[in-house]
Amino acid sequence: MEQLLHYCWKHKLCPLEGLQTTDGRSVEVLDPGLHNRNSGPDFFNAKVKIGGTLWVGNVEIHDKSGDWYVHGHERDVHYNNVVLHVVGVADRDVKTQEGNFVPQMVLKVPESVHDNYAELLRTDAYPPCYKIIPELTRLMIHAWLAALQTERLEQKTVAIAERVRQANGSWEDAFFMTLARNYGFGINGDAFEEWARHIPLRAVGRHRDDLFQIEAIFMGQAGLLEPSAIPERYQQDAQSEDYFDKLRREYQFLAHKFSLKPMDSNLWRFLRLRPQNFPHIRISQLANLYYERRASLSALVECKDMVSLADLLRTQVTPYWETHYTFGSESIRSAKHLSASSINLLIINTCIPMLFAYGRHAMKEELCDRAFDFLEQMRAEQNHIIRMWREVGLEVNTAGDSQALIQLKREYCDKRDCLRCRIGYEYLKQKK
Known about the structure:
This protein is α/β, with parallel strands linked by helices. It has helices at residues 2-11, 67-70, 111-122, 138-166, 171-183, 189-197, 201-205, 211-221, 238-258, 279-291, 297-301, 306-313, 340-362, 365-377, 384-391, 399-413, 422-429, and strands spanning 27-31, 34-35, 43-50, 53-64, 82-89, 104-106, 324-326, 329-330.
């Protein structure tokens, strides 16, 4: 109930006429104040007239007056500037740490708001607010999607900043870690990020002109050159045996030279994974990308359009993997290029967030603007989340739209956080 009281106060969803304090003084709400989500009073710098006198200060909201003492506000100096205590039930007087009585006002949540909120919480369909979506204005939807798009990029920026910290401040290393994670395409994302942390890029850089040595380090650090990582049928494949032994001997030399230790190969997942997504294939593609000096943030920053961005990520496997998916698992000869859809996902989940995050860090607004421009130029992703929103009547045209709606489902719908959602606001305020 307290959440709804906060919400009704913030958005002025309660009747604002005839309000009175518990001692009979009239109350006029001029400004509900700034919602505080941290410690301290719930709303800062509110403006209310009490008995004709204008008060500017803080507002605290509780289900019952007695909660003031349950939370220890009478001992906290931060609550001395509370000018109004808004409650659902006034069951006692309250005082500040200075000993002053705080004016109190009972606020009732409108029945329609209460019922609408209860309906949102109990509806099994996704999204629970589906009934109102066809009635929303294009302006309102556009504004909310733009805010969600920024929120999603900022959320990814936090993750990138953490990788920069882990990489001792290196944005190039953080870019490689982000790229590697997204090469896992969901299922092996965590394993690929762990693998990237095991790659000493400065050491690899000393062998950057030798693709075989790069692949040896990449495969070895993934734990894929350990005997336990090789299937039994490898023994019957002379080509695999020869190539595996060459890679392993090269890796053992380089591992000794740079004091390398591989990751646990058991972290890789193969079950229900298409062969083209096997880690061997993705790592070979990354080795090629690194060898061609395209797996770098500096190269990304130079991309000014979608064509150059797609070209930056376009790669294929090394010769052995053209006829194999794992050691000993032969396939029809194929260059095993990244598909166009895979490149698009890498642009959306790696390149655009990195441009935005680095632009924020380097205070280069043009990079942030470029990130948003790329999102608007790309077509929307195709997945079950986007299909769900389309089915309830939302237009989803660009990658900016799809990224915003993914954010909406994961951070609002899945968490039933309707009180922070602008569509939820439209649903709650409707009259029945």
